[in-house]
Input
Amino acid sequence: MIVKIGVKTLAEQLVAYHALKPGEGEAEAFARLNAEAHEKGVRVSDPTMIIYYDPRDAKGCRREVLVPVDREATGLKTKKLPPLRAGFVVYSGAAKPVEYYYEELKKHLDSRGLKPAAGSFCSMEAVYQPDTYGLSSGSFIDEDAQENWTTEILVPIEG
Output
């Protein structure tokens, strides 16, 4: 379900990051990155993010996982994401595949005459944890149910 769609300007943000190798899993990379930040006493916050430097379905797509951090630390790869104007769509649930939301965002941008920016990244997906977990009695897996999470897709735009 689409929660919101539009255009916004993102503020500069300090993130810890890890460039993924071809075939490397995102979930494991996020876990390692969060653990590394925690070991160094760095506080991480929502959302976890994936940047796609090539179209996400392209063979050999270059990707990075990122988490916002409160400070730099020796041995932890960090960088500042620059301010950025982007088209975005926020959705929740798992009723439709992620490609559906990319297409809805593309339609939204096209209808306003907006074009993706060249020279940056192709897209970013930001995943926000739910405020509360819908755990059933004795269960520890419901917290990972995709319908409890909110995802935002961002595409840098010209101008």
Remarks:
- The helical segments are 26-39, 98-111.
- Residues 88 and 154 are 4 Å apart (CA to CA).
- The chain is about 20% helix and 35% strand.
